[in-house]
Amino acid sequence: xxxxxxxxxxxxxxxxxxxxxxxxxxxxxxxxxxxxxxxxxxxxxxxxxxxxxxxxxxxxxxxxxxxxxxxxxxxxxxxxxxxxxxxxxxxxxxxxxxxxxxxxxxxxxxxxxxxxxxxxxxxxxxxxxxxxxxxxxxxxxxxxxxxxxxxxxxxxxxxxxxxxxxxxxxxxxxxxxxxxxxxxxxxxxxxxxxxxxxxxxxx
Length: 203
Prior knowledge:
Elements: E1 4-9, H1 15-34, E2 38-43, E3 54-60, H2 64-71, E4 73-78, E5 91-98, E6 114-119, E7 135-140, E8 145-149, H3 155-183, H4 188-191, E9 199-202
């Protein structure tokens, strides 16, 4: 069974969007566990006490497709800002999209920038749980990004999967840089559609 990878991003939204993203990760994890799916979250670069600006979620299990389909799009969270008391805005948006294999000629990763670790694959599975050191964690030194793959029984396949997730994250960072430089506007205004959300949560 192939894992489904999702990119969750707050774009260049304010700190409240990072808080919303953190809440969404918790909601997705609980739903995945309740439906018998494995859940793995790899946070984007430089998260602060309010959370990360982006994350890659990996879902695996019979209900993974249904979960992914239900969340792809814009997610609206409604809550009063805990960091800017008296701020009038109460709606904060997070975008969710599938990660597909990147286009050729996309992000180029220097192997010298990577540090690989193997670890024991864990997670749900009972008697079928993988007990070999087949899981792979990759650290990208220049950005501090760390991604993990434990979906496959083969260490080689997990390495390829972790690299794909890292490429997707680096690609997202590059897209945000280019969009901001090109338009001078927040990428969130372009990629996270407001008013047409697929889900809404009130905290």
